[in-house]
Amino acid sequence: MISMMNAFPTLRTERLIFRQFQAFDADTVQRLAGLKEVAAGTLLPHPYDLEAATQWIAQQQESFAAGNAITFAIVLAEEEQLIGSIGMEIAREHELARLSYWLGTAYWNRGYCTEAVQAVLDYGFTRLSLHRIYAPHFHNNPASGRVLRKVGMTCEGRMREHYIRFGQFVDVEIYGILREEFLNDSVL
Ligand SMILES: CC(C)(COP(=O)(O)OP(=O)(O)OC[C@H]1O[C@@H](n2cnc3c(N)ncnc32)[C@H](O)[C@@H]1OP(=O)(O)O)[C@@H](O)C(=O)NCCC(=O)NCCS
């Protein structure tokens, strides 16, 4: 049985802090997630204005309160700089979560997303007792697939021409991991 805690948790890794998004983050969210390079890997609205970012933050807070999702602001521990987002949409009845994430372009290719996914998988399996976590990514976004393989997730298949993004049909790859696999890997 999954129970969300009343207080929003703060997670820490070697280089990162994960905390709840706050209204004051809206301008940074808009600036980072508003770039087309970031939007291209996601289903974020584009263009993305400050009002959309403000509404999105409020929606994350409501979803957490309702127990349907948890979305962390990814913050550089040393600089206290917000660099991205990582979250899980939770289907409690299935002990299942869907993972999604983005980082500002200036922070790509330094292993931050891998560090973040590892931390959130750990939170999902050990603190929320989830059974399965999965993540879809667009086929034309190999960096995301690489992250998911690096943390030990399995490519379970491809949904062909599943979404329309920027006017083109895109294939979607599905990666997944079960709690037992994650916990067994973690003790090795
Ligand atoms: C996907 C994303 C989150 C990755 O974040 P990141 O912090 O750069 O990821 P990491 O540094 O942990 O790992 C990236 C890996 O992909 C690799 N990579 C980067 N570009 C690549 C490419 N074009 N082809 C293949 N591999 C690539 C990197 O080399 C690295 O692998 P390595 O450690 O083996 O060298 C980031 O690119 C992003 O925010 N993209 C836009 C939003 C998005 O696509 N979100 C994901 C939705 S599913």
Automatic annotation (TrEMBL):
<comment type="similarity">
    <text>Belongs to the acetyltransferase family. RimJ subfamily.</text>
</comment>
<dbReference type="InterPro" id="IPR051531">
    <property type="entry name" value="N-acetyltransferase"/>
</dbReference>
<keyword id="KW-0808">Transferase</keyword>
<dbReference type="GO" id="GO:0016747">
    <property type="term" value="F:acyltransferase activity, transferring groups other than amino-acyl groups"/>
</dbReference>
<dbReference type="Pfam" id="PF13302">
    <property type="entry name" value="Acetyltransf_3"/>
</dbReference>
<dbReference type="InterPro" id="IPR000182">
    <property type="entry name" value="GNAT_dom"/>
</dbReference>
<feature type="domain" description="N-acetyltransferase">
    <location>
        <begin position="33"/>
        <end position="171"/>
    </location>
</feature>
<protein>
    <submittedName>
        <fullName>Putative N-acetyltransferase, GCN5-related</fullName>
        <ecNumber>2.3.1.-</ecNumber>
    </submittedName>
</protein>
<keyword id="KW-0012">Acyltransferase</keyword>
<dbReference type="InterPro" id="IPR016181">
    <property type="entry name" value="Acyl_CoA_acyltransferase"/>
</dbReference>
